[in-house]
Structures are given as C-alpha cells and as structure tokens.
Amino acid sequence: MIRYLIRRIGVFLPTLLAASFLIFAFIRLIPGDPAAVMLGDMATPEAVAALRIEMGLEKSLLEQYVIWLSAATRGDLGESIFFQVPVLELIADGLETSLLLALISMIWIVAIGLPIGMLAAASRGSWLDQTLSGMAMFLASVPTFWIGLYLILIFAATLGWLPSSGYPSIFEEGGLGNLRYLLLPSLALAAPNAALIIRLTRASMLDVYREDYVRTARSKGIHPLAVVVRHVFRNALLTVVSAVGFTVAALISEAVVTETVFSLPGVGRMVVQSILRRDYPVIQGTILMIVLLYLTINLIVDILYAWLDPRVKLQ
Amino acid sequence: MTVVAKGSGFGRRQLAAFGLLTVAVLAVCAVFAPWLSPLDPLAIDPPARLTPPGADHWFGTDHYGRDTFSRVIHGSRMAALIGLGVVSIALGGGIAFGVTSAIFPRLGLLLMRVIDVLMAFPALLLALALIVILGRGVENSILAIGVVYMTTTARIVYGVSLRLKAEAWVDAALAMGAGTFRIVFLHILPNLMSPLFVQASFVFAFAQLQAASLDFLGLGVPPETPTWGNMLSESRVYITRAPWLLLFPGLMIALAAFSLNLVGDAVRDRLDPRLQAAFSSRGRL
User: Fold this and answer.
1) For B48-62, how does the pLDDT look when each residue is reduced to its tens digit (9 = 90+)?
2) How far does the CA of residue B121 sit from the closest CA of chain A (Å)?
3) Is A33 exposed, middle or buried (0-12, 13-18, 19+ CB in 10 A)?
4) Which of A145, A259, A293 to mutate to test the interface with B (most CBs of B within 10 A)?
5) CB of A202 closer than 8 Å to CB of A301
6) Is residue B260 within 8 Å of B23, Cβ to Cβ?
7) Entry pTM
8) 8 Å CB contact of A134 and B232
9) For A123-211, where are the alpha helices, taking DSSP H only?
10) CB count, 10 Å around CB of B6?
11) Contacts of B265 in chain A (CB under 8 A)
C-alpha cells in the first residue's frame, strides 16, 4: 500500500506541475503583447508598461513561470481586471456554490444510478433490464443544459415549485432552506452521469456474479444472501468509488454549463464569464484551481480504490 | 459466434438498426439541406414571430420569425461538418501520437506524458482554454474539440499498437528483415482499423455534445449560424412563450449523439468483445 501510495503521488506531482506550466503559458500563446492582451483595448500605454514590469516579461519564460508559480502557491493568483479584486477572493466566493452543487449531484448519481444498475443486473435479459439499459443509454446522450432548461420550464416556470436561477449562500438568510435553489441544477447535472453509473453498476455486478470467489463461496454452502452481502456489496462499494472517479471530470465540465443555465454564482460560470470579459487573470486562476481539484480528487479516488480492492496493488 | 448470450441478441440488434437509420437520415439532411428545408433558415419574417408549430411552420418560428424546421435541417450540416472535422483531427493526431509512441518507446514515454498532462484538464475546460487562445469560430471549435479527443484516441491507439507489436507475426516480420515503415503500414495500421472505427463513432457523438455546449455558452460557432446549440441558446429567453424552440434542437442533439453511440456500441460488440474495456460510450466529458 505504501509503495502504491508513493508511486501514485509520484505521478500526481509532475502532472500538476506540467499542467500549471500550460496554464501559465497559455496567456502568452494569445497573439500580441501579453500585458496588452491582459488589460484589453481600453488600456493606456502606461498601464501596459506597468503590467509588463509586474509580470516580469523582460525575464526569461522559465523565470517568469517560477515567479508566477511561487506566487500561486502562496495563494496570490493576481487581480481581476474586471472586478479589481484578488482572483483568489472571487474563487473563494464561487467555491461554496460549486462544491455543494457537485456534492448534491453526486448524491443523486449514486442514489439513482446504483439501485437501478443493480436492478438491471439482477433482472438481466428481461424486458425490465432492456428498458432500463436503453433509457440509461439515451439519457447519457442528452445535453445537460437541455435537461436543465426543461426542468426550469416545468418546475420553475409552469408549476412554480422551485426557483429557476441564482443561489443565496446557506450562511445567509434562509439557511439550509437555500439548498432548494440547487435542487433543479443538481438534478440536471446528475441525470447523464447517473445514466453512466447505471451501465457501470450493471456491468460490474454481472462480472462479480461470474467471479471465482463468488462461486467458491456458494459451493462452500454459504447462504446466497450472505454471498451477496459479503462479496457483491463490497463490489458495489468499489463501483461507487470508481463512479466518483469516472464522473468527476464530466461533473466539472457539465457544471460549467449547468451553472450558466441556472445563473449560479459558481466557479464554472465564472470561467465562462471571464472568458467573455477577457479577464485573463481570472481565467488562469480558476482553471488552475479546477485542475488542482480534479487531480486531487482523482488521487484520492485511486488510493481509496487500491485500499478497497487489494488486487490493484499487485498490478 | 453462434452462441449469443441471453438478452444480448434481439433488443440490441433493433437498437443498432435504429441508430444506423437515424445516422443515415441525419446524413441525408446534412447533404440535401437546401432542398429539404421548405424555407430559407436565415429569412426573417417579423409578423410571423414566435408562431407555434402548424401547417405553415411545422416546428414553429423563433423570435425573428425564422422557420424552426428549416433551421433544424440546416443545423445538421454544421453538426456533420463539426463531427467530421473533430473525428479527422482526433484520429489523425491520435494515430500519429499513438503509433509513434509505440514504435519508439523512449520518445513514446515522453509523448504519453504530454497526453497525460492534457488529460489533466476536464474536456470542456480544455476546449474552453483552447478557444481563449484561438478565438471563437467554426474552425476553432473543430480544432479545440479535436484536440480534446485526440488525447483519448492517442491513448487507445498506443495501447492497441503496443499489444500488436508484441504479437508473433510482428516478430516474424522483423526476423525477416522488415523495416519500421513496413511494420507500421502492413501490420499495425490495418489492425487498428476496427478499434478506430468504433472510436470514430463515439468521438463523433461526443463532438455533438461538446460543440452544442460551446455554442450554448456563446463560445462556439458565430450566433447567426443555425446550429442546434445556438438555437437552444437563443430559445432560453422565450422558454415559456415558445417551448417548441426548446424541444426540436435539443431533440436533434440527443438523437444524433444517441444513435452514434448505438452504432459505436454495436460495431464494438460485433468486431471484438475484448475491446469493451478500452471504450465506453461516454468516455471523456
């Protein structure tokens, strides 16, 4: 386990470092003077010159990167050109919305995907299995924002049960009741990913039934129910862990769109808006944070998986 | 293969046929759009704005009075163009990266690390970052999404090529004095064809969803071009007054992606069941 841990972290750190270099370099790939690009068309020559010095554009690219990275590790991601506040502050503001949205979606995904997947596996080959699998496959092909717009049309605009946009913090007036603002967005975000988990659970359950150790357990005369609880359930847990791993990238990508559909003040919408505003420090900072978060979650998922499934370490 | 596992025969075959048929219909729409659409997709007709579906306008009209049916038909053109473009870039780049890496192991280690780093970005985020550098537009959407799926394609090609390289017939060819070029073109590339066909149909499907997302965010194809994503983006404001504007373009995106996934799944199962591990019909999003 320790060796696996060291090896896995040995992959994580260089990847993060290389990704951070790409994120640093990409502003410089935009045609034109990076300082002028950053400040936009309205900038005065003095402001551009000042930013050139601040960004250290006279220094070598590697030196610039080291300066940028060391500032980033201290939490200094620069200042938003549009809002004139530190980028980290903006990210911190959006983080609550985005993390809660992802968390609630993940709960939906597991709560819907796992039981339906198990049901399909248990009734393998029947019309129920075919219907559930077919539906899951269709749902996986539906754009998240389309589902989101329909949820708004039905539950917000027509029935008026739930709010269609925005999200006030749970630490403000309304408290935990404000979570209702995230109900529709999290459902939209969960739907295609739950579909994926249905298929994943079904496939992995069928694999487990065929495993030697399940046959051995049965042939030893262990009660079938005990076999399911002891072996099949443990594998269900594995499925949940890999589900988290599988869907995290999709959740992040689709959260960008979902937050835009529901006008949620999250990090994903901030990426889109800062691209439209050409607020490059914010684009850089948010993408760096998202990649850091994504790689860290992947790391945790892999370690959890190795811990739950001893076979992983042997490979 | 005469023994068909229970439950994997009939329903699946019908689904695959449905998928193939839908793809064919969409392809016909894309090719013959100007003849199939009853009206000019760009023609503005203010008095007829937001007309519900009826005899004159089968799918209704939008806020400029443009005919939704004609726009949906024309949308299949851009969908096909983007799909073909993305598949070309993803497969072309993926083959180049993957095969080179498999043939030259030292260089391969480095190239695959580059691919790994690109895969550290969730798909849409990588596409968005590339759009920031390139600017929006049709070609740039294709390029950005193409690079995203080049990464996964390169990984698959690399894996399959390594396996092929270890096969006895490649050893035999090497022993007979075959050069690298000959090995690649005679022994590796032909055997990559079937996995690549499967990958192409999945990439084509993902490209539809990603392109629609970019358009919806206002960072894809210019807004005046009738694409399904652009149409959905514009429909947002009229969602209660004109729900048909929401229905048809969205349905087209879902149908296109679904049927392409069905075709990919069917071909994969038919060609080589062992390949299932290498692909999933959702892959990288």
Assistant:
1) 787 788 778 788 888
2) 6
3) middle
4) A145
5) no
6) yes
7) 0.87
8) no
9) 127-139, 144-151, 183-210
10) 8
11) 137
